[in-house]
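Continuing the batch. This is chain 6 of the set; chains 1 through 5 are on the previous pages. Same settings as before, nothing changed between runs. Recording input and output for traceability.
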Amino acid sequence: MTYRIALNFEDGATRFIDCNDGEKVLDAAYRNKINLPMDCSDGVCGTCKCHCEQGGYDLGDEYIEDALTEDEAEQGFVLTCQMVVSSDCVISVPVAASACKLAPATMEAELVAAERLSENRVRLSVKATQGALPTFLPGQYVNLSIPGLDGVHRSYSFSSLPGAEVATFLIRNVDGGAMGSYLERARPGDRMTLHGPLGSFYLREPKRPILMIAGGTGVAPMLSMLEVLAEQDMGGQSVHLIYGAHDQADLVEIERLDALKTRIPGLTVVSTCSGADNAHPVKGRVTDHIGADRLNGGDVDVYLCGPPEMVESVRGAVGDVANLYFEKFIPAQPEELAA
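Output for chain 6:
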């Protein structure tokens, strides 16, 4: 039996390795040509200390207190030189990938379709030119090269299910921008390079109610997360999504969200428009629709993605919660937009 281990590094890079039954994570990483931090490899120095975000494992009793305290172990910290997993796991590694002698992960892909969902929203679909697309954690992103512009790329979160043959991304179409200009001439078969996956914004194991708050194309990673939740046992936990845009036309993928509601027990969705002249029945900013009941007295996991101003506004509105995971969509700088 083998298990899939996601190693999420301090710089946001993620690498996936296979770990055999009974094999220690440090040994599995080395076998997969990843040099995780280590010194003694005997549970004495603590150099290989990481944090297990999710998954089952055993640390045995051969390490010493100076290497890993009882409090640290209770908080999910692990020594990879002693860690034997019993399920798939996600492990946060407190160093950059480059420190572990990892080269950037790149993959060649080709455009399947560029579908205009509204004047300002495009769904981009790509597939690998050879083999499979990169494995990623739901919520993560890649840097996507722009055909015809050497060295120019943009960052987009996956909106598709990990492991799907075709990956999808939601793009905010910026007039005069590098990607916006490309989309005017995009054709199926165009070659692109994917660099990643990247990011520490990803779905954790559902242990309490989940509140997702998305602004604009920030709904993309939420869609990927929801696709994964649709295939999991939620253990009775509820999921609520607040999805906002300025204009009603830019509230895209609503039919997909409706379909997900039939697949995820306890999923509720509120979409809202902040623009003054919208016919959308629900109006206001996303912060107008959070509600104390959705915060569950702070015992809630909040996933937040959107423009920086919205993210900061929501962070102030939710206060102290059990877990707050967020990612800001920062647009390219003006000089980059002209590229």
